[in-house]
Fold:
Amino acid sequence: MSVRPTYAVLWDVDGTLVDTGELHFQAWQRLASEIGKVYSRDDFAATFGWRNVEIFPHVFGSQYSPAEIDELGARKELYYRAEAEKGLDLLPGVLDLVKGLKDAGIAQAIGSSAPRGNVDLILAMTGLDQYITASVTMEDVSRGKPDPEVFVTAAKRLGVPPAQCLVFEDAPVGIRAAKSGGMKAVGITFVKHHPREKLAAEGADLVVGCLREMTAAKVLELLQNQS
Structure:
């Protein structure tokens, strides 16, 4: 009989494990051009970490039906994956930390607003699939970040209480989701999508510039600190 893990780390993907922001931005720009819309850097920054169903009305207007959003969103993700398949690198410190967490017996799962196809592609291309026990993606939830549903669902799949989970995130909405779900949260500023101050303001227990600053021992210290 398998032993249920005591602690868990829940990972955001884009901007945390890999830097695919520019690929997403280019895919959105291509789609926007095809539908006669404009998509700016400001649009990207304002909606990074959101689900497509939330991005469309915010950026392009409310005239699109759910079916149209599904079709257009799927097209955008095809553009993104076509570029991502050319090669992806893990951000500094990711692989050592993921390995260290596994060696320490800390369970790991993905909690992402991205479609499952994107997450599966990244995990397979980077080799992280051998360390990640579960993945919760856009298709698995009805509410996007900052709602905690994605992380709470990931914790349930691992069988670990939220209070014994730590989330790694690069976006304020992700930090807010983790904290509102009763979890510890570490913000990462490496890709520079959001400043340290914004991550801290959402309640991050720690903000680091790079995952090379983190070890499994530091994760356990944060998880075991009841304050």
Observations:
- The chain is about 45% helix and 10% strand.
- The first strand starts at residue 8 and ends at 11.
